[in-house]
Amino acid sequence: MNDMLPLFNxxxxxxxxxxxxxxxxxxxxxFLILIxxxxxxxxxxxxxxxxxxxxxxxSYMAHFIHRWFTFDTTEPxxxxxxxxxxxxxxxxxxxxxxxxxxxxxxxxxxxxxxxLNVLLWGAITWLSMRVxxxxxxxxxxxxxxxxxxxx
Length: 151
Description:
Elements: H1 5-11, H2 17-41, H3 47-70, H4 77-105, H5 110-133
Helix pairs in contact: 2-3, 2-5, 4-5
């Protein structure tokens, strides 16, 4: 299994949009499972509550999954947790707004609009996390940078 890790990292390097998408898919699966668990506890009239609690819990978990799996970071957790919370709130509001706008201006299937909207906001979230929150540290191979002597 450890022999496959370098190959995995080659195709899905830390900080990449692909790796973010894999983690996001896992986070979404956890979200859906949590909703189903809560639906066995609460009745359907609690749907907004179930959605909100599931969203908050899995967003918190997603922070740690992205911190460990997706990005290389030296940013302290006490700084990244509130920033991710703000980003997720912004993303929830922004994606709702763009979804409504897309519904009004695009004449394509509603599911395709939802998919496009998720992809758009996934890319915005990835870029925001990579640059602003986790400040992904990419390893620079110094031997690949030409020096004055080599020119």
